Amino acid sequence: MFEKKNIKIWIGSYLRSLFAHEPLDTGTPIRLYFMIADHFEPYWNGAGKSEALRRTANWISRYPEIASRFKDSEGRSPRHTFFFPEEEYDAEIIAMLARHCKEGFGDVEIHLHHDRDTSEGLRRKLVSFRDRLHEEHGLLRREEEKGRILYGFVHGNWALDNSRKDGRYCGVNDEIRILGETGCYADFTLPSAPSDTQTKKINSIYYAVEDPALPKSHDDGIDVEARKAQRGDLMIVQGPLGLDWYARKFGIFPRIENSEICQDHPAADHRVHLWKRYAPKVKGMPNHLFIKVHTHGCQESNQRYLLEERGLDHLYGLLEDVCGKNGWRLHFVTAYEMFKIIKCLEAGF
User: Fold this and answer.
1) ∠207-208-211 over CA atoms, to 5°?
2) Contacts (Cβ under 8 Å, ≥6 apart) of 288
């Protein structure tokens, strides 16, 4: 059978979305905002210090040459968002990434793996790591109005807000609220299909409303909408999710398009068109398409594919080609830049 594991969670939303498109404004161009959320784990699979350094150095040495070959509609090269795990903190590696990002190649945000945690333990981890990244490495940024340090977030093992059915890899039912209170501007974890942590709400940019007594408060939420103020506790920015009828399993059954870029799920022309079809939008601004894909850039097979086997080169070339042929305006952005654009559209600009 095709990849049906946990598909019942979201298939209803997917089917309804096929008949509920907000019409495009034919008088204005389509703008496609593209970002990569890299679950960047140098110590993945129990690696030692030397291997973690080698993985990071390989990325930093190869990425600038790849990125320099491509430009978006504003003349900007691609930029990479490194969601770095709190539990793998290494001052030397973070310093390497900080220098790389200051040269214009991306940004660092927060990633976290935890298990059977408490609200107090979670808050302590987030605040300590947030402050260290900002104060010791010059990363993240301060909110203009309140002066808080802001960060984007990806949850390890996909288990945001204790969303696994078995309760593993989180343990905190009020995680959404704690993220918002500690300066998280948006979560970029989803989609997580075929995991059971996947939400029923898909292909959306929305605000989750916390219920501290229950897990998975972000299973549904309130769409971000033009000229409507924030109406929830935390912005959730999802990547495209749907059925892929182009690359069928056994030539019959559709695969799941879940926005992952890896050796086993490489970039392809038809995937770019699927991302456009499923792209989350700000309600009332249908010509602005937000495409977030994800990868694990420190896993050996993925790093070879992305950097040495022309995976990123092919991906960026496809985006340039497809957007150019269709007259779409391509924008390479980081997670924070994507968030800022969403907030501008929400304000009606």
Assistant:
1) 150
2) 31, 33, 281, 282, 341, 345
Residues 183, 150: contact at Cβ < 8 Å?
yes
pLDDT tens digits, one per residue of 257-307: 999 999 999 999 999 999 999 999 999 999 999 999 999 999 999 999 999
| Domains of the chain, earliest start first | 7-20+28-346 (3.20.110.10)
Whether pLDDT at 315 is above 50? yes
Per-residue pLDDT of 113-167, as tens digits, reads: 999 999 999 999 999 999 999 999 999 999 988 889 999 999 999 999 999 999 9
CA neighbor of 272 nearest in space, from 238, 315, 241: 315
Across 13-170, where does the E strand assignment appear? 31-39, 80-85, 106-112, 141-142, 149-155
The reported pTM is 0.96
* Strands (E) located in 211-346: 222-223, 234-237, 242-249, 253-257, 288-295, 329-332
Could you write out the three-class secondary structure of 253-289? EEEEECCECECCECCCHHHHHHHHHHCCCCECCCCEE
Query: From CA 80, how far away is CA 101, in angstroms rounded?
Result: 9
**87, 112 contact by CB (below 8 A):** yes
Q: Rounded to 10 degrees, what is the CA torsion of 263, 267, 268, 271?
A: 120
Q: Report in angstroms the alpha-carbon separations of 243 from 3, 278, 332.
A: 10, 10, 25
Per-residue model confidence as pLDDT tens digits over 184-241: 999 999 999 999 999 999 999 999 999 999 999 999 999 999 999 999 999 999 999 9
| Inter-residue contact 192 to 9 (CB < 8 Å) | no
Look up residue 225 and give its DSSP letter: B
Separation of alpha carbons 16 and 141, rounded Å: 39
Q: Measure the CA–CA gap between 224 and 35, rounded to whole angstroms.
A: 19
13: CB partners within 8 A, 6+ apart: 200, 201, 202
